[in-house]
Each structure stands twice: as structure tokens, then as C-alpha cells.
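Final report, closing paragraph on structural work. Over the funding period we assembled a curated collection of sequence-structure pairs, and we close with a single example.
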Amino acid sequence: MRDVAIVAFAQSAHRRRTDELSEVDLLMPVLHEVLGATGLKANEIGFTCSGSADYLAGRAFSFTMALDGVGAHPPISESHVEMDGAWALYEAWVKIQTGEADTALVYSYGKSSPGRVRDVLTRQLDPYYLAPLWPDSVALAALQAQALIDAGDTDEGALAEIGARNRTVAVDNPYAQLTGDVPAGDHLVHPLRTGDCPPIGDGAAAVVLAAGDTARALCERPAWIRGIDHRIEAHSLGVRDLTDSPSARLAAEHAGAFQRPVDTAELHAPFTSQEVVLRKALGLGDEVRVNPSGGALAANPIMAAGLIRLGEAAARIHRGESDRALAHATSGPCLQQNLVAVLEGESAHE
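Its predicted structure, as stored:
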């Protein structure tokens, strides 16, 4: 296995609406920033991979338009996943492992403002039994929250505290959309209140990966990917225990998360109840700092929020604020798909 690291991370300021910006307008400053941090030019990148969803844009192959932000010339080796950018990072990591590239640019973006996200996300559901019923993402998250309450794993007060903690620490995050003292609010779908749910907004993110000595030359303290894995739950919600996440636990096990303690965890938990599930599945105690960035409850650009968790964890390692971090990304209803990566600083590796 080749040593591969995240050597740079950049993201946009996440906003409720960016009507004046196209996807290319949203992406270009982020791409320029992440490449500028390494000194690389686009034609010096060995592989480029993006993550986005045509359903958000409302048109087929919308990601090809976003490539204008990378540049049409000279030709590049490029791929795309119809998923959160965390899965694009996984593809780029595999590409580097094959030896076909030494560096990779990974980016993702999502503009949720033009449409109704709760309706759009129903297209992720089983097309025969669930999708025709149009149960939206908040209603399904509420089912999971109620299952946790019924099992005695949490209560509405504890969920409110999770939301308050994430948005309070997000005050120090200049890119966050929702920060500070945010009231729990009224029930949106019982037992979830507005404060238990993520903000809707637009945003983009990008990272640069590099292997071995190339990573060391590009970054003073690379965030080495010591393990990465992703797993999926059964598609039918009716056959799952919504109070647990076996796929997240299995992904963490295969990524090596349980071999040694982590000091930081960036969890992609758009709903407060999902943090409860993930903490239990990943064995995260109070000694682990969870979501120092504010997490998805502070900014949740769909298709970029998972990549941002990896980027935020890496950035803390770059700054020397973390030695060993866990980063998690999810996609689908009730934590259906889960990706876990373990990142370490150079000193931790030695």
C-alpha cells in the first residue's frame, strides 16, 4: 500500500442561497485556493475526481459544466461519482494506490437552494416500495430519532444539547452557515425540532491528495490516510435496526479506527439523532473532540458535507491540533451508506 495524504483543503463560505452564482462560479475560488496552497497547477495533477448530484441541478450530466472550473485544456484524467465528494476521494485514493497517479484533485459541490431538498432526496429510496410514498428525509430521520428515544438511548433534551454544542463551536468556523445560540424551535416532524435538523444551503469543497515524498514536499505536515473504507446498510429501512449503524462500525474496523484511540472525530451527522447513533457505533467517548468545526448541523451543503468532514479533520492535523483523527461521511436515509477514514500526522506515524 502506498502512503497517501491529504495535503490541502479548501471550502466556500456556505450560504442559504447563491442565486447569483453558477456551480462554476461557486467552485472556481475553492479550486484556485486548494491548488494555490500546494503550488500545483491543474495540468500538474495526475487525476481529478468530483462528486455531485444531477438531481440537485435538475439536469443530466451537470457535472460536465462544472469541469469548466478546472479548465478544458490541457486534457486531464478525470472521473465523477454521483455521490458525496468523500466517495470521490475514495476513488482518487484507489487511483493513486494503483500507481497511475501521484497526485489527485478532489472536489464536490451542491446547490440545494433552487429546489425542495426534502423532496429531491426521496429519489434515493427504494423505487418500488418507499419512493412512491414520498417519505421525505426529515420524516425518515424522525423515525430514527423516535426509535432511539424508545430504546432509551436519548431524549429530546439531549438532542437539543447536541445541536447547541455543534453550533456553539461553529462560531470559530468562518465558513459555517449557522452558528451560535440557535433555539431548538418547534417540532418539524416529531420528535425532531428545527434545531435538530441541518440548514439548507449551497457550498463547495476541494482537497488535494498526494503520495509519499510528493506529499511531504507539498505540505509541512501531511494528513496521512492510514485507513479508509465504506459500507452500506440494507436498502429497505424495514429490515434495519435504526438505533445502530453496523456499516459504520464495519467501515471503521476495516479503516483501523479501533487499533488506537483517536483525539478528534468529524462526523457527518446532519441530524442530532444521527450523532447519537454514530458515537455508539464508532465507540467515541467524551475524551474525543467531536465536530470541532460544528459539523453538518452548522453547514450541510449536500454532496460536499462528507468531503468537508475529511477536509476539516485533515486541516486540524495540518495545523498540529490533532495527531490521529477519524473522519466520517454518509449518504442516503438514516445513515444508509457510511465511509470512515483514519488520518494521522507525521509524528503519529513515526
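The radius of gyration is 19 Å. Residues 230 and 284 are 18 Å apart (CA to CA). We thank the funder for supporting this effort.
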